[in-house]
Amino acid sequence: MAKIGYARVSTKNQNLDLQIDKLEEVGCEKIFYEKRGATQERPEFEKCLEYLRNGDKLVVWKLDRLGRTMRQLINLVEDLKERDIHLHIVNDGIDTSTDSGKLMFTIFSMFAETERNMIIERTKVGLESARKRGRVGGRKKIDPDVLDRAFMMYDSGFSVMDICRTLPIQKSTFHKYNKDRIEVDKSE
């Protein structure tokens, strides 16, 4: 039976060291890791699942490294169970090779989903509160005069880099509005 680890952080500026250290401490022979959110595609996680063989144990530092919804987690455990692969969650002391581990996994899955739903709800309430105070999220709207000047410069032969150095406009913003402008010209 091989212990195969999986470590994940949600953003590029977070660090994987703690998780990798803990997975090495419990004897993982191979560790897959990535920096991606739980709701994004996770290619290393897919590789990890493909790598696992009958009798292996998938080891993660915390339950939320695997997924966010109870349905997601239970489906994963069922899939692993069908393949005769166990799950060990180091931080929570859960090991699905035992009956108590299976029970604990179900309980912790419900907590993880509840926590995620609470975060979503708090975010919605916070955004609504900010809107009532006149604050809106997202990028600031670009000044139409700046946009007009940028297009005049571009039509006069200036490079996009020169325009962005001269005016308060980002390259991606210029291209977005220029693409929209070209599409309007084509439709006329």
CATH fold naming of the largest domain = Rossmann fold
Total domains: 2
Q: What is the CATH H-level superfamily of the largest domain?
A: Resolvase, N-terminal catalytic domain
Strand content: 5-15%
Structure description:
The chain is of the alpha/beta class. It folds into two domains: 3-112, 3-Layer(aba) Sandwich (Rossmann fold); 144-187. Helices cover 54% and strands 12% of the residues. Strands 2-1-3-4-5 form a five-stranded mixed β-sheet, sandwiched between helices. It is elongated, with a radius of gyration of 25 Å.
Question: TL;DR?
Answer:
With 188 residues, this protein is of the alpha/beta class. It contains 7 helices and 5 strands.
What brief labels describe this structure?
188 residues, alpha/beta, Rossmann fold, 5-stranded mixed sheet, 7 helices, 5 strands, 54% helix, elongated
Secondary structure: elements and pairs:
Layout: E1 3-9, H1 17-25, E2 30-35, H2 43-51, E3 57-60, H3 70-82, E4 86-89, E5 94-95, H4 99-132, H5 144-155, H6 160-166, H7 171-187
Parallel strand pairs: 1-2, 1-3, 3-4
Antiparallel strand pairs: 4-5
